[in-house]
Amino acid sequence: MENASFGVALRDLRRERGLSLASLSALTHYSKGYLSRIETGERPPTPLVARRCDEVLRAEGALAGLVPARRRHQDGFRRPAQLPAAPRAFAGRAAALAELDDARRSHQMVVVSGPAGVGKTATALYWSHRAARRFPDGCLFADLRGFDPTGAPAEPAEVLARFLRDLGCSPASIPAGLEPRAARLRTLLDGRRVLIVVDNAATSDQVRPLIPGSPGCRLVVTSRSRLSGLVARDGAARLVLAPLPEYEALTQLGEAIGDRRVAEEPEAAAEIARRCGYLPLALRIAAERAQARPSVRLAALATELAVTRERLNLLATTEDEATTVRSVFSWSYRALPPDAARMFRLLGLHRGADLGVPAAAALAGTGRSQAQRLLEALAAVHLLEEADSGRYRFHDLVRLYAAECAEADESAEDRSAAVRRLLGWYLHAADAAGRRLDPLRRRAESGPPDERPITFAGYAEALDWFDAERANLAAVVRHAAGTGHTVLAWRLADAGGSYFVLRKPWAEWVSAYQAGLTAARDGKDEVGEAWMLDGLAAVHRDLGSLDEALECCEQALVIWRRVGDRAAECASLNDLGDICRTFGRTATALVRLREALALSREIGGARETATALGRIGETYLRIGQIDQALRFLSDALAVFTKLGDRNGEARVLDTMGVAYQTLRCGDRAVDLLRAALQVRRELGDRHGAATTLLHLGEVYRDVREEAPARVALREALTICEESDDPRVGRLRELLGDRRGDALP
């Protein structure tokens, strides 16, 4: 069917251009018979043929868009369709749209720049919707928050992680680090035709990692900055938008409120357009106000806008904030009911990318139904955007204005109380979610909640909440640290610990714990410092930075002994023994782990006892004392099973499988490893699953079952490649793929 569809389109375009098959053959350098069979659907078109016919027939990529791209990595790819809705009252910009069409043909990237409120996003989205049919593999969209009033633009690594998730990668499989993520995106887009639109970029460096490698992809960037680096170094085309001519501004106003009202009061309409600085964003907000009051004459609205203008400066340069837009924001804000106006300005205190209804309710100190109503009211007048079902975000200019309103219209005490409510809500929500993920995990006390926090019905719901709030968690930890809430800062980081250990989002994990450590030290809080050091030791161990892990763990142990927290001391001894074993210092590891075992039994810590037993077993396995290893591992498994600790159970089952492999008991090893794999998959522990799959593949190799061995090793390799795991090389060697190419 695809061949026939292409053939019909080719024939129609050829005839439309007045060309015979012989003429098309001469122009494209393909034989007449070959082209005839393509037109009749007897032969499939190749991308090269389609591109050549596009050029000859001036089809602007229409034919190439009908050819399915050849992909080496098709499994799991999801076609994104992320473009926000096209602007409803878009008018004018014919020249700009034509320039975008020209740039698409000759450049892989185009930068749309201009002052705030000039309609960069609207123009880019309007054009992108028109051009979307030329990108059959989908459209990606991201707001880079380049001029965010909090000074926290979106990190390219975070944007890449979201793109990868949206293209089909699981959150746990996202590689660590900017370059591995950028490389992974280029790999996924290889041979595809995808349109990427990134809004509100601050610098060239923020955009550069998002540039696709495939020639069939296009990147459209909007920014208040000119982004000269992308033009000079990366060959981007540049489109600079100026304010609308008066006639286009009036046309846009008429599209929004009706041509009749504009025609009835042309002078007032012209005054509104002038007071809006002919900026499309301001015009849209003004039109919303006019629509909401159809009985009010435009002259009255023009007068209101003129009065507001007196309180704010006019736009001075393309680098300054668009103060005319702020004037319109002020006008809309002052027209809000008191409760909606209060919600609006308090939202300006939130530092995260977006927020849900429960968080907004905590921030404002209201019930959730009232918060939902207020958020919907703000979204209805374009002061807030609904980013996803039940989650809202600001445009960066509106966020800036909301923060200014909070500064001007809320007392310092009220602002501090609102921030404290929000941070407290995040702390107790994260703690509740973490307890669902790992109810037995040692954690810092969070204290009683100020308000009723969110509750979770089960494991999956808690995991979904963490996935949605992951970036916000790191942001609120930094916010707490920056506003003097030092205890809240490190407790917030610790509350996310169960999620960080499970999903291993490296960047957010390190960011949250490092901010928490700084806060604890600033507050001279030794206990908080030790909690953060323990967490950083874990992430450094997992990342293979063993020197840093050892240093953090030893510092934490000193503090726990000084403050007399014996349970925490026991946990640090277990971690220290694990790090030493990984280092190859098995004698030291056994000393530390036996200390932990004795202390855990003395204080009655069942989980720490099981942990010590399991890690002693792992250490004996490393030095080849298999009988000793199995004795300790069996004891650990019994305790973990009794406690219902599935994470601990899976780790011990995996290690026992390796031990039985060493004893050449293949069937027993396979049974244990399969049991471990099942638990890890149920928990969503992809890194743990990769470990077990690697071990399972090795056992199958030992018993000469090559087919299941390759299946297990291939799956482990896929997980490790997605997460930039250092075991990739070993897995490729086991599979006989020394070049690093895709496996057969």
Task: Name the descriptors.
3-stranded antiparallel β-sheet, mainly alpha, 5-stranded parallel β-sheet, 744 residues
Written description of the protein model:
Helix content is 64%, strand content 5%. The protein contains 36 helices and eight strands. It starts with a helix and ends in a 10-residue tail after the last helix. The C terminus is likely disordered.
Sequence-ordered SSE layout with sheet pairings:
Blueprint lengths: L1 H15 L4 H8 L3 H8 L7 H11 L36 H13 L2 E5 L6 H12 L7 E5 L12 H11 L11 H12 L5 E7 L2 H4 L10 E6 L4 H5 L4 E4 L5 H12 L1 H6 L1 H10 L4 H13 L5 H12 L13 H12 L3 H10 L7 E2 H8 L3 H13 L4 E4 L2 E3 L2 H14 L2 H26 L21 H24 L3 H10 L1 H7 L2 H17 L3 H17 L3 H18 L2 H18 L2 H18 L2 H17 L3 H18 L2 H17 L3 H18 L2 H17 L3 H17 L5 H7 L10
Parallel strand pairs: 1-4, 1-5, 2-3, 3-4
Antiparallel strand pairs: 6-8, 7-8
Helix pairs in contact: 7-8, 11-13, 11-14, 13-15, 14-16, 15-16, 17-19, 17-20, 18-19, 18-21, 21-22, 21-23, 22-23, 22-25, 23-25, 23-26, 25-26, 26-27, 27-28, 28-29, 28-30, 29-30, 30-31, 30-32, 31-32, 32-33, 32-34, 33-34, 34-35, 35-36
Note the overall shape.
flat
**Which percent range fits the helix content?**
55-70%
Mean pLDDT: 86
Beta content: under 5%
- Report the C-alpha radius of gyration, rounded: 30 Å
Number of strands: 8
Largest sheet: 5 strands, parallel
Gap between N and C termini, in Å? 29 Å
Strand arrangement in the largest pleated sheet:
2-3-4-1-5
Oligomer: single chain
- Quickly count the helices: 36
Indicate the structural class: mainly alpha
Q: What are the low-pLDDT stretches, counting only 5+ consecutive residues below 50?
A: 70-75, 308-324, 738-744
